[in-house]
User: Which sequence fits this backbone?
Protein backbone atom coordinates (compact mmCIF):
# COMPACT_ATOMS: atom_id res chain seq x y z
CA UNK A 1 0.00 0.00 0.00
CA UNK A 2 2.79 2.39 0.85
CA UNK A 3 6.45 2.64 1.71
CA UNK A 4 5.82 2.97 5.45
CA UNK A 5 7.46 0.15 7.39
CA UNK A 6 4.66 -1.37 9.44
CA UNK A 7 6.71 -4.23 10.83
CA UNK A 8 6.67 -4.55 14.61
CA UNK A 9 9.07 -6.03 17.12
CA UNK A 10 7.16 -6.33 20.32
CA UNK A 11 8.42 -8.13 23.43
CA UNK A 12 10.33 -10.54 21.23
CA UNK A 13 7.52 -11.02 18.70
CA UNK A 14 8.35 -10.12 15.11
CA UNK A 15 5.12 -9.26 13.36
CA UNK A 16 4.64 -8.04 9.77
CA UNK A 17 2.10 -5.47 10.93
CA UNK A 18 0.75 -3.85 14.08
CA UNK A 19 -2.87 -4.99 13.68
CA UNK A 20 -3.97 -8.17 15.43
CA UNK A 21 -7.37 -9.83 15.46
CA UNK A 22 -8.66 -9.69 19.05
CA UNK A 23 -9.61 -12.66 21.21
CA UNK A 24 -13.13 -13.94 20.76
CA UNK A 25 -13.84 -11.79 17.71
CA UNK A 26 -11.93 -13.69 15.04
CA UNK A 27 -13.19 -17.22 15.57
CA UNK A 28 -10.55 -19.94 15.59
CA UNK A 29 -9.33 -19.04 12.09
CA UNK A 30 -11.47 -20.75 9.44
CA UNK A 31 -14.33 -18.25 9.85
CA UNK A 32 -12.10 -15.25 9.17
CA UNK A 33 -10.25 -17.10 6.41
CA UNK A 34 -13.37 -16.95 4.25
CA UNK A 35 -12.79 -13.19 4.04
CA UNK A 36 -9.06 -12.59 4.47
CA UNK A 37 -5.69 -14.35 4.61
CA UNK A 38 -4.92 -14.87 8.33
CA UNK A 39 -1.18 -14.82 7.59
CA UNK A 40 -1.53 -11.22 6.36
CA UNK A 41 -2.45 -10.04 9.88
CA UNK A 42 0.10 -9.10 12.52
CA UNK A 43 -1.21 -12.02 14.52
CA UNK A 44 -4.44 -13.79 15.37
CA UNK A 45 -5.43 -13.87 19.04
CA UNK A 46 -7.45 -17.02 19.69
CA UNK A 47 -10.68 -17.23 21.68
CA UNK A 48 -9.78 -17.74 25.34
CA UNK A 49 -8.68 -21.34 25.86
CA UNK A 50 -9.59 -23.10 29.10
CA UNK A 51 -8.51 -26.45 30.57
CA UNK A 52 -11.91 -28.10 30.13
CA UNK A 53 -14.56 -27.50 27.45
CA UNK A 54 -16.91 -24.61 28.26
CA UNK A 55 -20.50 -24.48 27.05
CA UNK A 56 -20.78 -20.74 27.49
CA UNK A 57 -23.80 -18.73 28.55
CA UNK A 58 -27.34 -19.25 27.34
CA UNK A 59 -28.86 -16.99 24.72
CA UNK A 60 -29.37 -14.08 24.25
CA UNK A 61 -25.63 -13.56 24.42
CA UNK A 62 -25.33 -10.29 22.61
CA UNK A 63 -27.28 -7.02 22.34
CA UNK A 64 -26.62 -4.07 20.10
CA UNK A 65 -26.43 -0.66 21.77
CA UNK A 66 -25.64 2.82 20.43
CA UNK A 67 -21.96 2.79 19.47
CA UNK A 68 -21.40 -0.87 20.11
CA UNK A 69 -22.70 -4.02 21.69
CA UNK A 70 -22.97 -5.70 25.05
CA UNK A 71 -21.97 -9.35 25.07
CA UNK A 72 -21.80 -12.21 27.55
CA UNK A 73 -20.85 -15.35 25.70
CA UNK A 74 -19.38 -17.09 28.73
CA UNK A 75 -16.26 -17.84 26.64
CA UNK A 76 -17.49 -21.04 24.97
CA UNK A 77 -14.67 -23.26 23.80
CA UNK A 78 -13.61 -26.86 23.29
CA UNK A 79 -10.93 -26.92 25.99
CA UNK A 80 -7.17 -27.09 25.55
CA UNK A 81 -7.02 -30.72 24.35
CA UNK A 82 -9.24 -30.02 21.33
CA UNK A 83 -7.58 -26.64 20.83
CA UNK A 84 -4.10 -28.12 20.40
CA UNK A 85 -5.44 -31.04 18.36
CA UNK A 86 -7.53 -29.02 15.89
CA UNK A 87 -7.54 -25.23 16.13
CA UNK A 88 -3.84 -24.56 16.59
CA UNK A 89 -2.68 -26.90 13.78
CA UNK A 90 -5.24 -25.25 11.47
CA UNK A 91 -3.84 -21.79 12.26
CA UNK A 92 -0.31 -23.05 11.72
CA UNK A 93 -1.22 -24.54 8.35
CA UNK A 94 -2.76 -21.19 7.38
CA UNK A 95 0.56 -19.50 8.13
CA UNK A 96 -0.90 -17.39 10.95
CA UNK A 97 1.15 -16.08 13.84
CA UNK A 98 -0.85 -17.06 16.88
CA UNK A 99 -1.31 -15.40 20.24
CA UNK A 100 -3.07 -17.89 22.49
CA UNK A 101 -5.56 -16.29 24.86
CA UNK A 102 -5.92 -18.21 28.11
CA UNK A 103 -8.64 -18.16 30.73
CA UNK A 104 -8.84 -20.21 33.91
CA UNK A 105 -10.82 -20.57 37.09
CA UNK A 106 -7.60 -20.69 39.11
CA UNK A 107 -4.02 -19.56 38.61
CA UNK A 108 -3.07 -23.22 38.23
CA UNK A 109 -5.49 -23.66 35.34
CA UNK A 110 -3.90 -20.78 33.43
CA UNK A 111 -0.52 -22.44 33.91
CA UNK A 112 -1.84 -25.84 32.89
CA UNK A 113 -3.22 -24.48 29.61
CA UNK A 114 0.09 -22.73 28.92
CA UNK A 115 2.01 -25.92 29.62
CA UNK A 116 -0.17 -28.03 27.34
CA UNK A 117 0.04 -25.49 24.53
CA UNK A 118 3.83 -25.47 24.87
CA UNK A 119 3.95 -29.27 24.75
CA UNK A 120 1.82 -29.44 21.60
CA UNK A 121 3.10 -30.15 18.10
CA UNK A 122 1.92 -26.85 16.63
CA UNK A 123 3.56 -24.69 19.31
CA UNK A 124 5.92 -23.30 16.67
CA UNK A 125 3.12 -21.04 15.39
CA UNK A 126 2.61 -19.47 18.84
CA UNK A 127 4.27 -16.07 19.05
CA UNK A 128 2.77 -15.08 22.38
CA UNK A 129 0.30 -15.86 25.15
CA UNK A 130 -2.33 -13.40 26.32
CA UNK A 131 -3.93 -13.82 29.73
CA UNK A 132 -7.62 -12.98 29.86
CA UNK A 133 -7.87 -11.72 33.42
CA UNK A 134 -11.58 -10.91 33.22
CA UNK A 135 -12.36 -14.14 35.06
CA UNK A 136 -12.42 -14.26 38.84
CA UNK A 137 -9.61 -16.82 38.97
CA UNK A 138 -11.18 -18.83 41.78
CA UNK A 139 -14.58 -20.33 42.53
CA UNK A 140 -16.53 -18.10 44.91
CA UNK A 141 -14.48 -14.97 44.18
CA UNK A 142 -16.68 -12.16 43.00
CA UNK A 143 -14.18 -9.76 41.44
CA UNK A 144 -12.16 -10.26 38.26
CA UNK A 145 -8.44 -11.03 38.54
CA UNK A 146 -7.78 -7.84 36.60
CA UNK A 147 -8.86 -5.68 39.57
CA UNK A 148 -6.54 -7.45 42.00
CA UNK A 149 -2.86 -6.59 41.43
CA UNK A 150 -1.50 -9.47 43.50
CA UNK A 151 -3.82 -12.17 42.18
CA UNK A 152 -3.19 -11.05 38.59
CA UNK A 153 0.58 -11.05 39.14
CA UNK A 154 0.43 -14.56 40.55
CA UNK A 155 -1.25 -15.84 37.38
CA UNK A 156 1.35 -14.07 35.26
CA UNK A 157 4.22 -15.55 37.26
CA UNK A 158 2.89 -19.12 37.09
CA UNK A 159 2.32 -18.91 33.31
CA UNK A 160 5.72 -17.25 32.78
CA UNK A 161 7.40 -20.30 34.30
CA UNK A 162 5.73 -22.62 31.80
CA UNK A 163 6.85 -20.90 28.61
CA UNK A 164 10.19 -20.39 26.89
CA UNK A 165 11.71 -16.91 27.32
CA UNK A 166 11.16 -15.95 23.67
CA UNK A 167 7.39 -16.39 23.96
CA UNK A 168 6.04 -13.28 25.67
CA UNK A 169 3.34 -13.39 28.33
CA UNK A 170 0.88 -10.56 27.75
CA UNK A 171 -1.49 -9.55 30.55
CA UNK A 172 -4.85 -8.29 29.28
CA UNK A 173 -6.13 -5.72 31.74
CA UNK A 174 -9.42 -4.01 32.39
CA UNK A 175 -10.16 -0.30 32.49
CA UNK A 176 -12.80 -0.95 35.15
CA UNK A 177 -10.36 -0.49 38.05
CA UNK A 178 -9.45 2.28 40.46
CA UNK A 179 -5.91 2.54 39.10
CA UNK A 180 -4.94 0.57 36.01
CA UNK A 181 -1.29 1.53 36.52
CA UNK A 182 -1.18 -0.31 39.84
CA UNK A 183 -2.40 -3.54 38.23
CA UNK A 184 -0.10 -3.03 35.24
CA UNK A 185 2.92 -2.49 37.47
CA UNK A 186 2.15 -5.58 39.52
CA UNK A 187 1.73 -7.75 36.39
CA UNK A 188 5.04 -6.54 34.97
CA UNK A 189 6.76 -7.30 38.27
CA UNK A 190 5.19 -10.75 38.09
CA UNK A 191 6.85 -11.29 34.73
CA UNK A 192 4.51 -9.87 32.10
CA UNK A 193 6.45 -8.99 28.95
CA UNK A 194 3.67 -6.81 27.53
CA UNK A 195 0.20 -5.51 28.38
CA UNK A 196 -3.03 -5.55 26.41
CA UNK A 197 -5.38 -2.69 27.27
CA UNK A 198 -8.40 -2.95 27.54
CA UNK A 199 -10.98 -5.69 27.95
CA UNK A 200 -14.69 -5.05 27.39
CA UNK A 201 -16.29 -2.70 29.92
CA UNK A 202 -18.84 -4.13 32.40
CA UNK A 203 -22.30 -3.17 31.17
CA UNK A 204 -25.90 -4.21 31.11
CA UNK A 205 -29.07 -3.65 29.10
CA UNK A 206 -32.71 -3.92 30.16
CA UNK A 207 -35.10 -5.18 27.49
CA UNK A 208 -37.87 -2.57 27.69
CA UNK A 209 -40.48 -4.93 26.28
CA UNK A 210 -40.07 -7.34 29.19
CA UNK A 211 -38.41 -4.99 31.73
CA UNK A 212 -35.91 -7.77 32.39
CA UNK A 213 -32.18 -8.08 31.59
CA UNK A 214 -31.66 -8.41 27.84
CA UNK A 215 -28.82 -10.93 28.26
CA UNK A 216 -29.22 -14.43 29.63
CA UNK A 217 -26.16 -13.76 31.80
CA UNK A 218 -27.86 -10.56 33.11
CA UNK A 219 -24.73 -8.39 32.62
CA UNK A 220 -21.91 -8.49 30.10
CA UNK A 221 -19.19 -6.40 28.54
CA UNK A 222 -19.48 -3.33 26.33
CA UNK A 223 -17.42 -3.36 23.12
CA UNK A 224 -17.37 -1.25 19.99
CA UNK A 225 -16.79 2.40 19.18
CA UNK A 226 -18.17 3.53 22.54
CA UNK A 227 -15.16 2.08 24.40
CA UNK A 228 -12.40 3.53 22.17
CA UNK A 229 -11.98 6.69 24.31
CA UNK A 230 -11.82 4.52 27.43
CA UNK A 231 -9.09 2.41 25.82
CA UNK A 232 -7.17 5.48 24.65
CA UNK A 233 -7.18 6.87 28.18
CA UNK A 234 -6.09 3.58 29.76
CA UNK A 235 -3.21 3.25 27.28
CA UNK A 236 -2.31 6.89 27.87
CA UNK A 237 -2.06 6.73 31.67
CA UNK A 238 -0.13 3.47 31.58
CA UNK A 239 2.33 4.80 29.03
CA UNK A 240 2.67 8.04 31.02
CA UNK A 241 3.55 6.03 34.13
CA UNK A 242 6.29 4.27 32.16
CA UNK A 243 7.65 7.53 30.76
CA UNK A 244 7.70 9.05 34.25
CA UNK A 245 9.50 6.02 35.69
CA UNK A 246 6.60 5.01 37.92
CA UNK A 247 6.64 1.50 36.46
CA UNK A 248 8.95 -0.56 34.24
CA UNK A 249 8.57 0.03 30.51
CA UNK A 250 6.94 -2.76 28.50
CA UNK A 251 5.08 -2.64 25.17
CA UNK A 252 1.34 -1.99 25.22
CA UNK A 253 -1.16 -3.49 22.79
CA UNK A 254 -4.21 -1.23 22.51
CA UNK A 255 -7.66 -2.70 21.96
CA UNK A 256 -11.18 -1.37 22.24
CA UNK A 257 -13.52 0.01 19.62
CA UNK A 258 -11.02 0.16 16.74
CA UNK A 259 -12.93 0.29 13.48
CA UNK A 260 -10.65 2.35 11.25
CA UNK A 261 -7.02 3.24 10.64
CA UNK A 262 -7.49 6.55 12.44
CA UNK A 263 -8.96 4.76 15.46
CA UNK A 264 -5.79 2.64 15.54
CA UNK A 265 -3.68 5.79 15.20
CA UNK A 266 -5.24 7.19 18.40
CA UNK A 267 -4.15 4.15 20.41
CA UNK A 268 -0.66 4.25 18.87
CA UNK A 269 -0.24 7.95 19.62
CA UNK A 270 -1.39 7.32 23.19
CA UNK A 271 1.43 4.81 23.60
CA UNK A 272 0.40 1.45 22.13
CA UNK A 273 2.95 -0.39 19.98
CA UNK A 274 0.27 -2.47 18.29
CA UNK A 275 -3.51 -2.66 18.22
CA UNK A 276 -6.17 -5.33 18.13
CA UNK A 277 -9.39 -5.18 16.17
CA UNK A 278 -12.25 -6.86 18.00
CA UNK A 279 -15.98 -6.54 17.53
CA UNK A 280 -15.55 -4.52 14.32
CA UNK A 281 -15.20 -7.93 12.63
CA UNK A 282 -18.88 -8.55 13.36
CA UNK A 283 -20.01 -5.77 11.02
CA UNK A 284 -17.06 -6.26 8.62
CA UNK A 285 -15.12 -9.53 8.81
CA UNK A 286 -12.31 -7.93 6.79
CA UNK A 287 -11.92 -5.15 9.38
CA UNK A 288 -8.47 -6.19 10.76
CA UNK A 289 -6.90 -6.11 7.31
CA UNK A 290 -8.78 -2.95 6.32
CA UNK A 291 -7.55 -1.19 9.49
CA UNK A 292 -3.99 -2.22 8.58
CA UNK A 293 -4.39 -0.76 5.09
CA UNK A 294 -6.00 2.46 6.37
CA UNK A 295 -3.27 2.85 8.98
CA UNK A 296 -0.59 2.50 6.30
CA UNK A 297 -2.27 5.25 4.29
CA UNK A 298 -2.71 7.50 7.33
CA UNK A 299 0.96 7.13 8.28
CA UNK A 300 2.09 7.80 4.72
CA UNK A 301 -0.08 10.93 4.63
CA UNK A 302 1.64 12.17 7.78
CA UNK A 303 5.06 11.55 6.24
CA UNK A 304 6.05 8.86 8.75
CA UNK A 305 8.83 6.49 7.70
CA UNK A 306 7.86 3.82 10.19
CA UNK A 307 5.31 2.91 12.77
CA UNK A 308 7.74 3.73 15.59
CA UNK A 309 7.47 7.41 14.63
CA UNK A 310 3.97 7.62 16.08
CA UNK A 311 4.08 5.21 19.03
CA UNK A 312 3.50 7.40 22.10
CA UNK A 313 3.92 10.60 20.10
CA UNK A 314 0.96 12.15 21.88
CA UNK A 315 3.05 12.47 25.02
CA UNK A 316 5.85 14.38 23.35
CA UNK A 317 6.20 18.03 24.27
CA UNK A 318 3.35 17.98 26.73
CA UNK A 319 3.85 19.47 30.16
CA UNK A 320 0.87 17.62 31.50
CA UNK A 321 1.04 13.91 30.79
CA UNK A 322 -1.07 12.48 33.56
CA UNK A 323 -4.78 12.92 33.72
CA UNK B 1 -6.56 -17.96 0.13
CA UNK B 2 -9.06 -19.88 -1.98
CA UNK B 3 -12.23 -18.30 -3.24
CA UNK B 4 -13.17 -15.77 -0.56
CA UNK B 5 -16.80 -15.01 0.27
CA UNK B 6 -17.74 -11.82 -1.60
CA UNK B 7 -18.10 -8.54 0.26
CA UNK B 8 -19.62 -5.92 -2.00
CA UNK B 9 -21.08 -2.45 -1.84
CA UNK B 10 -24.56 -3.43 -2.92
CA UNK B 11 -26.59 -0.79 -4.75
CA UNK B 12 -30.32 -0.77 -4.15
CA UNK B 13 -32.15 -0.62 -7.47
CA UNK B 14 -35.73 -1.25 -6.38
CA UNK B 15 -37.69 -1.14 -3.14
CA UNK B 16 -41.41 -1.70 -2.84
CA UNK B 17 -44.03 -2.47 -0.26
CA UNK B 18 -45.60 -5.93 -0.43
CA UNK B 19 -48.37 -6.27 2.14
CA UNK B 20 -46.77 -5.60 5.52
CA UNK B 21 -43.26 -6.22 4.19
CA UNK B 22 -40.64 -4.43 2.14
CA UNK B 23 -39.07 -6.12 -0.89
CA UNK B 24 -35.59 -4.84 -1.83
CA UNK B 25 -33.52 -5.61 -4.92
CA UNK B 26 -29.75 -5.01 -4.76
CA UNK B 27 -27.10 -5.21 -7.43
CA UNK B 28 -24.61 -7.55 -5.79
CA UNK B 29 -22.26 -9.07 -8.33
CA UNK B 30 -20.53 -12.20 -7.09
CA UNK B 31 -23.07 -12.70 -4.30
CA UNK B 32 -25.96 -13.42 -6.65
CA UNK B 33 -24.12 -15.98 -8.75
CA UNK B 34 -23.13 -18.13 -5.77
CA UNK B 35 -26.29 -18.01 -3.68
CA UNK B 36 -28.60 -21.01 -3.27
CA UNK B 37 -32.03 -21.22 -1.60
CA UNK B 38 -31.80 -21.07 2.20
CA UNK B 39 -28.67 -18.92 2.25
CA UNK B 40 -28.63 -15.37 3.53
CA UNK B 41 -26.78 -12.10 3.14
CA UNK B 42 -25.41 -9.88 5.94
CA UNK B 43 -26.06 -6.17 5.57
CA UNK B 44 -24.14 -3.52 7.52
CA UNK B 45 -26.66 -0.82 8.37
CA UNK B 46 -26.60 2.74 9.63
CA UNK B 47 -24.19 4.30 7.13
CA UNK B 48 -20.65 5.39 7.94
CA UNK B 49 -21.37 7.93 10.66
CA UNK B 50 -23.88 6.04 12.78
CA UNK B 51 -22.89 2.53 11.74
CA UNK B 52 -24.55 -0.19 13.78
CA UNK B 53 -22.15 -2.65 15.37
CA UNK B 54 -23.98 -5.72 14.14
CA UNK B 55 -25.20 -7.04 10.80
CA UNK B 56 -28.76 -7.57 9.66
CA UNK B 57 -28.96 -11.02 8.14
CA UNK B 58 -31.74 -11.60 5.63
CA UNK B 59 -32.65 -14.70 3.66
CA UNK B 60 -32.19 -14.39 -0.06
CA UNK B 61 -35.63 -14.26 -1.68
CA UNK B 62 -34.24 -14.85 -5.14
CA UNK B 63 -31.37 -13.88 -7.40
CA UNK B 64 -30.93 -13.07 -11.04
CA UNK B 65 -27.51 -14.07 -12.24
CA UNK B 66 -26.90 -11.28 -14.68
CA UNK B 67 -29.10 -8.48 -15.82
CA UNK B 68 -28.41 -5.02 -17.12
CA UNK B 69 -26.69 -4.18 -13.84
CA UNK B 70 -24.96 -7.46 -13.06
CA UNK B 71 -26.23 -10.06 -10.61
CA UNK B 72 -29.04 -8.97 -8.32
CA UNK B 73 -30.12 -10.22 -4.90
CA UNK B 74 -33.67 -9.80 -3.57
CA UNK B 75 -34.53 -9.79 0.13
CA UNK B 76 -37.77 -9.25 2.03
CA UNK B 77 -37.90 -7.67 5.48
CA UNK B 78 -40.26 -6.40 8.10
CA UNK B 79 -39.42 -3.43 10.29
CA UNK B 80 -38.47 -4.79 13.72
CA UNK B 81 -35.85 -2.34 14.99
CA UNK B 82 -33.36 0.37 14.07
CA UNK B 83 -31.50 -1.69 11.48
CA UNK B 84 -34.48 -2.98 9.56
CA UNK B 85 -36.06 0.50 9.78
CA UNK B 86 -32.91 1.95 8.21
CA UNK B 87 -33.03 -0.62 5.41
CA UNK B 88 -36.75 0.06 4.92
CA UNK B 89 -36.04 3.76 4.45
CA UNK B 90 -33.35 3.25 1.77
CA UNK B 91 -34.02 4.68 -1.66
CA UNK B 92 -32.93 3.58 -5.10
CA UNK B 93 -29.16 3.97 -5.69
CA UNK B 94 -28.33 3.96 -1.97
CA UNK B 95 -25.42 1.64 -1.22
CA UNK B 96 -25.12 -0.91 1.61
CA UNK B 97 -22.12 -3.11 2.49
CA UNK B 98 -23.19 -6.71 1.86
CA UNK B 99 -21.44 -10.01 2.56
CA UNK B 100 -22.64 -13.31 1.23
CA UNK B 101 -23.94 -15.71 0.39
CA UNK B 102 -23.64 -17.09 3.92
CA UNK B 103 -24.83 -20.21 5.71
CA UNK B 104 -25.78 -23.73 4.67
CA UNK B 105 -28.36 -23.90 1.90
CA UNK B 106 -31.46 -26.10 2.02
CA UNK B 107 -30.57 -29.53 0.65
CA UNK B 108 -32.42 -30.68 -2.47
CA UNK B 109 -33.63 -34.27 -2.78
CA UNK B 110 -31.61 -36.48 -5.14
CA UNK B 111 -34.81 -38.01 -6.57
CA UNK B 112 -37.93 -36.16 -7.77
CA UNK B 113 -39.87 -36.92 -4.58
CA UNK B 114 -43.05 -35.02 -3.71
CA UNK B 115 -42.38 -32.05 -1.41
CA UNK B 116 -44.45 -29.80 0.83
CA UNK B 117 -43.27 -26.22 1.41
CA UNK B 118 -44.59 -24.39 4.47
CA UNK B 119 -44.01 -20.67 4.97
CA UNK B 120 -45.29 -18.11 7.44
CA UNK B 121 -45.04 -14.36 6.84
CA UNK B 122 -41.96 -13.29 4.93
CA UNK B 123 -40.49 -16.70 5.71
CA UNK B 124 -42.21 -17.80 2.51
CA UNK B 125 -39.77 -15.64 0.48
CA UNK B 126 -36.83 -18.10 0.29
CA UNK B 127 -39.23 -21.02 -0.29
CA UNK B 128 -40.55 -19.50 -3.50
CA UNK B 129 -37.02 -19.61 -4.90
CA UNK B 130 -36.58 -23.16 -3.61
CA UNK B 131 -39.87 -24.13 -5.30
CA UNK B 132 -38.45 -23.26 -8.69
CA UNK B 133 -35.40 -25.46 -8.10
CA UNK B 134 -37.59 -28.37 -6.97
CA UNK B 135 -39.83 -27.90 -10.02
CA UNK B 136 -36.83 -28.12 -12.31
CA UNK B 137 -36.01 -31.46 -10.69
CA UNK B 138 -39.52 -32.69 -11.38
CA UNK B 139 -40.69 -32.76 -7.76
CA UNK B 140 -44.48 -32.59 -7.30
CA UNK B 141 -45.10 -29.60 -4.98
CA UNK B 142 -47.69 -28.43 -2.54
CA UNK B 143 -47.37 -25.22 -0.53
CA UNK B 144 -48.95 -24.14 2.73
CA UNK B 145 -48.73 -20.40 3.24
CA UNK B 146 -49.71 -18.66 6.41
CA UNK B 147 -49.84 -15.16 7.77
CA UNK B 148 -49.92 -13.96 11.36
CA UNK B 149 -51.80 -10.83 10.26
CA UNK B 150 -55.05 -10.32 8.41
CA UNK B 151 -54.91 -10.19 4.64
CA UNK B 152 -53.22 -12.14 1.90
CA UNK B 153 -50.10 -14.16 2.86
CA UNK B 154 -46.81 -13.04 1.38
CA UNK B 155 -46.06 -14.56 -2.03
CA UNK B 156 -49.47 -16.17 -2.58
CA UNK B 157 -49.61 -15.39 -6.29
CA UNK B 158 -46.13 -16.74 -6.94
CA UNK B 159 -46.85 -19.78 -4.75
CA UNK B 160 -49.87 -20.57 -6.92
CA UNK B 161 -47.74 -20.25 -10.06
CA UNK B 162 -44.96 -22.50 -8.85
CA UNK B 163 -46.76 -25.38 -7.11
CA UNK B 164 -49.51 -27.90 -7.82
CA UNK B 165 -51.68 -26.80 -4.93
CA UNK B 166 -51.63 -24.03 -2.34
CA UNK B 167 -53.37 -24.07 1.02
CA UNK B 168 -53.81 -20.76 2.82
CA UNK B 169 -53.98 -21.23 6.55
CA UNK B 170 -53.90 -19.27 9.79
CA UNK B 171 -50.85 -20.24 11.89
CA UNK B 172 -53.00 -22.38 14.18
CA UNK B 173 -54.24 -24.44 11.24
CA UNK B 174 -50.81 -25.15 9.76
CA UNK B 175 -50.20 -28.55 11.43
CA UNK B 176 -53.44 -29.99 10.01
CA UNK B 177 -52.84 -28.44 6.59
CA UNK B 178 -49.32 -29.91 6.49
CA UNK B 179 -50.55 -33.35 7.57
CA UNK B 180 -53.19 -33.31 4.82
CA UNK B 181 -50.69 -32.21 2.19
CA UNK B 182 -48.24 -34.96 3.18
CA UNK B 183 -51.07 -37.51 3.04
CA UNK B 184 -52.33 -36.39 -0.37
CA UNK B 185 -48.90 -36.54 -1.94
CA UNK B 186 -46.96 -39.13 -0.01
CA UNK B 187 -44.42 -36.37 0.47
CA UNK B 188 -40.84 -37.30 1.26
CA UNK B 189 -39.63 -33.87 2.36
CA UNK B 190 -41.33 -30.99 4.12
CA UNK B 191 -39.54 -27.64 3.99
CA UNK B 192 -40.44 -25.01 6.57
CA UNK B 193 -39.53 -21.34 6.92
CA UNK B 194 -40.92 -18.96 9.51
CA UNK B 195 -41.02 -18.47 13.29
CA UNK B 196 -39.73 -21.26 15.54
CA UNK B 197 -43.22 -22.45 16.67
CA UNK B 198 -44.17 -23.00 13.01
CA UNK B 199 -40.97 -24.92 12.36
CA UNK B 200 -41.51 -27.12 15.38
CA UNK B 201 -45.08 -27.86 14.23
CA UNK B 202 -43.79 -28.66 10.73
CA UNK B 203 -41.19 -31.03 12.21
CA UNK B 204 -43.83 -32.83 14.26
CA UNK B 205 -46.22 -33.12 11.30
CA UNK B 206 -43.46 -34.35 8.99
CA UNK B 207 -42.39 -36.99 11.48
CA UNK B 208 -45.98 -38.21 11.91
CA UNK B 209 -46.38 -38.39 8.13
CA UNK B 210 -43.13 -40.26 7.54
CA UNK B 211 -41.37 -37.31 5.87
CA UNK B 212 -38.10 -35.52 6.59
CA UNK B 213 -38.41 -31.92 7.82
CA UNK B 214 -35.88 -29.40 6.55
CA UNK B 215 -36.31 -26.07 8.29
CA UNK B 216 -34.85 -22.63 7.83
CA UNK B 217 -34.28 -21.24 11.31
CA UNK B 218 -34.53 -17.48 11.67
CA UNK B 219 -32.33 -17.12 14.74
CA UNK B 220 -31.01 -13.59 15.24
CA UNK B 221 -27.52 -13.66 13.76
CA UNK B 222 -25.51 -10.64 14.96
CA UNK B 223 -22.54 -11.19 12.61
CA UNK B 224 -23.66 -13.92 10.21
CA UNK B 225 -20.10 -15.18 9.76
CA UNK B 226 -19.50 -17.47 12.73
CA UNK B 227 -17.41 -14.99 14.69
CA UNK B 228 -19.63 -13.67 17.48
CA UNK B 229 -20.90 -16.95 19.00
CA UNK B 230 -24.35 -15.49 19.72
CA UNK B 231 -26.72 -17.41 17.39
CA UNK B 232 -26.31 -20.80 19.02
CA UNK B 233 -28.90 -23.52 18.55
CA UNK B 234 -29.17 -26.73 20.62
CA UNK B 235 -28.84 -29.64 18.20
CA UNK B 236 -28.67 -33.41 18.67
CA UNK B 237 -26.04 -34.99 16.45
CA UNK B 238 -26.29 -38.36 14.72
CA UNK B 239 -24.53 -39.69 17.80
CA UNK B 240 -27.37 -38.38 19.99
CA UNK B 241 -25.07 -35.96 21.82
CA UNK B 242 -26.48 -32.48 22.43
CA UNK B 243 -24.35 -29.75 20.93
CA UNK B 244 -24.60 -26.01 20.75
CA UNK B 245 -24.00 -24.97 17.13
CA UNK B 246 -24.04 -21.63 15.35
CA UNK B 247 -27.09 -21.03 13.19
CA UNK B 248 -25.06 -18.88 10.79
CA UNK B 249 -22.47 -21.50 9.82
CA UNK B 250 -23.91 -24.90 10.77
CA UNK B 251 -27.36 -23.61 9.68
CA UNK B 252 -29.63 -21.81 9.04
CA UNK B 253 -30.95 -24.92 7.23
CA UNK B 254 -31.35 -27.75 9.72
CA UNK B 255 -33.10 -31.10 9.78
CA UNK B 256 -36.06 -30.31 12.01
CA UNK B 257 -35.66 -33.47 14.07
CA UNK B 258 -32.11 -32.50 15.05
CA UNK B 259 -33.14 -29.27 16.78
CA UNK B 260 -33.90 -29.52 20.48
CA UNK B 261 -36.97 -27.28 20.33
CA UNK B 262 -37.53 -27.47 24.08
CA UNK B 263 -34.15 -25.84 24.67
CA UNK B 264 -34.25 -23.29 21.89
CA UNK B 265 -34.23 -19.85 23.50
CA UNK B 266 -36.11 -17.02 21.91
CA UNK B 267 -33.26 -14.61 21.41
CA UNK B 268 -33.59 -10.95 20.62
CA UNK B 269 -30.33 -9.49 19.27
CA UNK B 270 -30.16 -6.80 16.61
CA UNK B 271 -33.19 -6.25 14.44
Assistant:
Amino acid sequence: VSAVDLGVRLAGMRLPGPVLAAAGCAGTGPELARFLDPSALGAVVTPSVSVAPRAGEGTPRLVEVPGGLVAATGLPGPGVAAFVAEDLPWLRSAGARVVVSIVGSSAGEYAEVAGRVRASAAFGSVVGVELNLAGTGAPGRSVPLAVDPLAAAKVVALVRERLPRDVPVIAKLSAEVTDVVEVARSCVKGGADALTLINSVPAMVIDTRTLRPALAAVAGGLSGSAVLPIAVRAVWVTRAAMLEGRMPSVPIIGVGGVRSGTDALQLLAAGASAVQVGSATFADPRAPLRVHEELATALADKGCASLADVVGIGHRGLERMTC
Amino acid sequence: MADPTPQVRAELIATRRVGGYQHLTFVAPGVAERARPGQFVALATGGEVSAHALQRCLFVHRVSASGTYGGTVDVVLSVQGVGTRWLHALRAHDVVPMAGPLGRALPLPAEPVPCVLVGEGYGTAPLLWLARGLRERGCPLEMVVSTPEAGEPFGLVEARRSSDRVTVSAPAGVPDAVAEAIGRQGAGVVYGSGPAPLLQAVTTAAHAGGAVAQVLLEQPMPCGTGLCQACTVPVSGRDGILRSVRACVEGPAFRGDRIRWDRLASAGAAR
In short: Chain B has a mean pLDDT of 92. The first helix of chain B runs from residue 31 to 34. The longest strand of chain B covers residues 55-67.
